[in-house]
């Protein structure tokens, strides 16, 4: 099979919401369609990929740097995204991965979509078969949202959480650290009341930065609350302050969504003071370079004595569901908004079934299918 066209689009995926670190007004994500010369039912077979949310669209890097290399590859490689990753990283210096991992993840997703479609199976079943896993027909899920909106948003937040519980969720996560402490605490207490016995976590989005005093003051505001976990309390790369956070609270710490490479994860596991029996890792499969980039991250977990079930990837859409189900990861983060490309998965008693359609199943997901409208003609 040959790639005959590589189509990219960057879409606005944000809105008037924010967390402790950023606003989402200008947030974007990119979509990639790899059109092949293979014809199925009279139409060319197409591999689809879509960025995760939170780091802006990766299309410019695909267009200028990795797309031309992909086009120049031996077509025989295309069924093996792990080999493609190695080829695309030729002449790339080690370390400092940053945004290039996101572009590689977008390409990787589209290649796996193609490979699974060609095999006639959903990606999670292909991954399980290829990497010696059982595959999970249901995966644990949590609903992620609770962003700050303008003004006093406690009533809207409580309504958002109750709606999630009504849709079958048993685990919820909201933002924290973005208001003065008293107002933030009142907002969190309102959320805990609305959560009505569901597990509730808070995401600080690195709000305490590299400041130990800010960390300890913030943890003090959370001390007596029944939280499922405290996410990203400090700068993603301040390993010493991670260690201080882990030592300062009995509540699980969750982090890792801004680490994009196996060596970055190894450093966190070696020096961040996190505990495999208690804490959670959240590297984003797409931002780590996709499945081919996630495999060395899994090896880093195993080398560090971490069960893969402690990895709950950041900010998924269907690509992450397949990774969780196919590679035996812990669970899936889905957006609270069911109309979002990052949400819309059917949940029952806190679990969701990964798609059974061949490939990633984007075509059967209303919001994800809309992303690719007009790109496939
Ligand atoms: Mg987060």
List descriptors.
globular; 3-stranded antiparallel beta sheet; 12 strands; alpha/beta; binds magnesium ion; 37% helix; 9-stranded mixed beta sheet; 377 residues
List the helices and strands and how they pair.
Elements: E1 3-12, E2 28-40, E3 43-50, H1 59-72, H2 81-88, H3 99-119, H4 123-130, E4 139-144, H5 154-166, E5 171-175, H6 181-195, E6 199-203, H7 212-222, E7 230-231, H8 239-248, E8 253-255, H9 262-271, E9 280-281, H10 290-303, H11 318-327, E10 332-335, E11 347-348, E12 351-352, H12 366-371
Parallel strand pairs: 4-5, 4-10, 5-6, 6-7, 7-8, 8-9
Antiparallel strand pairs: 1-2, 2-3, 4-12, 11-12
Bound molecules: magnesium ion (MG).
What is this structure, in a nutshell?
The protein has helices at 59-72, 81-88, 99-119, 123-130, 154-166, 181-195, 212-222, 239-248, 262-271, 290-303, 318-327, 366-371, and strands spanning 3-12, 28-40, 43-50, 139-144, 171-175, 199-203, 230-231, 253-255, 280-281, 332-335, 347-348, 351-352.
3D architecture notes:
The chain has helices at residues 59-72, 81-88, 99-119, 123-130, 154-166, 181-195, 212-222, 239-248, 262-271, 290-303, 318-327, 366-371; strands spanning 3-12, 28-40, 43-50, 139-144, 171-175, 199-203, 230-231, 253-255, 280-281, 332-335, 347-348, 351-352. It is an alpha/beta fold and 377 residues long. The strands form two sheets. Strands 4, 5, 6, 7, 8, 9, 10, 11 and 12 form a nine-stranded mixed β-sheet that branches. Strands 1-2-3 form a three-stranded antiparallel β-sheet. Helix 3 (99-119) crosses helix 10. 50% of the residues are buried. Magnesium ion is lined by residues 203, 205, 231-232, 257.
